[in-house]
Amino acid sequence: MKMRRHSQPSEDSGIDLTPMLDVVFIMLIFFIVTTTFVREAGINVNRPSAQTAERMDEQTILVAISSENEIYIDGRQVGINGLRAEIERLKGQSPDATVVVQADREAGAGIMVQVMDQARLAGARNVSVAAEVP
């Protein structure tokens, strides 16, 4: 009868984690690339409510008007004179973007009309006013 020898495990034997790490890093890169980032106007606006309010798509240019009639885009305050150039710059990055005006309840109607007018002069086809669903 033959005797079998059982070899002892060597110190080099173990689980190779390299393929698993490769998969994890590929998944991480995938999620980073496919994530959409929410752009905010830069200030908190107390929006009025409306029964017909709808959600907008991802490609929007947000213009906020504070209760003190200050205009903000991407967290920066801009004047009414610089608003058109700023919207034109953002429209160059995404030509199909919709301009959404987030006006505070206390903001004047005149400044909102001026903002909407500057957006139209900048080439925006769709200009909307943001509201909350009650």
Describe the model.
Strand 2 (71-73) and strand 3 form a beta hairpin. It contains three helices and five strands; from the N terminus they run H-E-E-E-H-E-H-E. The longest helix has 17 residues, at 18-34. It has helices at residues 18-34, 80-93, 109-121; strands at residues 60-65, 71-73, 76-78, 98-103, 127-129. The model has no long low-confidence stretch (mean pLDDT 79). It has a five-stranded mixed β-sheet with strand order 3-2-1-4-5, with helices on one face. The chain is of the alpha/beta class. The chain has a domain at 60-129: Nucleotidyltransferase, domain 5 (2-Layer Sandwich). Helix 2 (80-93) crosses helix 3 (109-121). It is elongated and about 100 Å long.
Q: What portion of the residues fall into strands of 2 or more residues?
A: 15-25%
- The overall pLDDT average reads 79
CATH topology of the domain at 60-129: Nucleotidyltransferase, domain 5
Number of helices: 3
Write the H/E string, N to C: HEEEHEHE
Q: Which overall shape is indicated by the principal axes computed on the Cα atoms?
A: elongated
Give the radius of gyration: 27 Å
What structural class do you assign from the helix and strand content? alpha/beta
The rounded distance between the terminal residues' Cα atoms is: 88 Å
CATH first level of the domain at 60-129: which class? Alpha Beta
CATH architecture verdict of the domain at 60-129: 2-Layer Sandwich
Care to count the β-strands? 5
The proportion of residues forming helix, as a percent range, comes to: 25-40%
Low-confidence segments, ≥5 residues, pLDDT <50?
none
Q: Report the sheet with the most strands, covering strand number, pairing sense and barrel closure.
A: 5 strands, mixed
Q: Give the neighbour order of strands across the main sheet.
A: 3-2-1-4-5
